Structures are given as structure tokens and as C-alpha cells.
């Protein structure tokens, strides 16, 4: 069997984000962005790992610390290291999404046209990961 035949069956991608506080992260991704928990390492929100799904998007969250080792506050250096990780999502009505996110208490700048000609909004998740929602300008 050739390598080409083998690799053509690879499907999807599910980024794994390390989070400080799983209940807080779930509140954001599930309750604000609408992701559904499709699998978890236990019951309830205070679990170590979840697989989330929204439409065709899959995302995994994993706690950055084992419960007995978790510090009382997030490590600022760890959060700063998240600056090199961005997730880009498509949404056909950026202005509508912007209004919705504001209504949910999110802090973000007004939509802007990117250098590549897409309308976009940016926000940070509770762990400092940059999320961009964008769509081509018609």
C-alpha cells in the first residue's frame, strides 16, 4: 500500500488547549460559544479533559495541572506563552456575532478588515488563547 493511499484517510483536526480552570473554560466554550461536550474524563464540569464539538469543529481542553498540584492562581508565564497560539473560526455575520459576544459580557474591539480582506473580531479566552472569528468581505 502506498503512503499516498494511507495518508489520504487522515480526517479532521482537534487542537488540544491546556486550561487552568476547567469549569471556567467550559463556561466560555460551551455556554458562550455553543460547543457541546461530546466526551469527558468524568462527570460534571470539574473534569481533567473534554472533547468539544460545534458544527464541524472539534476542540479538546485539558487541565494544565493535576488537582493536587494546581496553584491557587494561574502562572503568568504559562499564560504569556499562549500568545503564540491562535484559533481562527469562520462566521458569515461578524457584526451579528460581535453584538452577541458583547451581550455575553465579552470584551473585544469592534470588527475590523484584515490585511487579507476579511472582516474579523478578536478576543482572548479565559486562558489567554487568541480567538479570531472572520469571514471574507463580500
From TrEMBL:
Any Gene Ontology biological process: L-methylmalonyl-CoA metabolic process
Keywords for this protein: Dioxygenase, Metal-binding, Oxidoreductase
Bilayer-spanning residue ranges: none
Domain VOC, first and last residues per copy: 9-136
Record-linked InterPro entries: Glyas_Bleomycin-R_OHBP_Dase, Glyas_Fos-R_dOase_dom, MMCE/EMCE_epimerase, VOC_core
PROSITE patterns registered for this protein in UniProt: VOC (PS51819)
Molecular functions (GO terms): dioxygenase activity; metal ion binding; methylmalonyl-CoA epimerase activity
A Pfam family hit: Glyoxalase
Annotated PANTHER family: METHYLMALONYL-COA EPIMERASE, METHYLMALONYL-COA EPIMERASE, MITOCHONDRIAL
Name of the protein in its database record: Catechol 2,3-dioxygenase
The species this protein was found in: Mucilaginibacter gossypiicola
Amino acid at each position: 500500500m502506498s503512503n499516498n493511499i494511507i495518508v489520504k484517510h487522515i480526517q479532521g483536526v482537534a487542537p488540544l488547549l491546556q486550561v487552568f480552570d476547567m469549569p471556567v473554560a467550559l463556561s466560555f466554550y460551551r455556554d458562550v460559544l455553543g460547543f457541546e461536550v461530546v466526551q469527558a474524563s468524568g462527570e460534571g464540569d470539574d473534569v481533567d479533559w473534554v472533547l468539544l464539538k460545534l458544527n464541524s469543529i472539534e476542540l479538546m481542553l485539558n487541565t494544565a495541572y493535576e488537582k493536587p498540584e494546581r496553584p491557587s492562581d494561574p502562572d503568568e508565564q504559562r499564560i504569556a506563552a499562549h500568545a503564540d497560539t491562535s484559533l481562527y473560526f469562520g462566521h458569515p455575520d461578524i457584526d451579528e456575532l460581535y453584538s452577541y459576544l458583547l451581550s455575553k459580557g465579552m470584551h473585544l474591539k469592534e470588527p475590523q478588515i484584515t490585511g487579507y480582506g476579511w472582516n474579523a473580531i478578536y478576543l482572548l479566552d479565559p486562558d489567554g488563547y487568541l480567538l479570531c472569528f472572520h469571514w471574507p468581505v463580500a
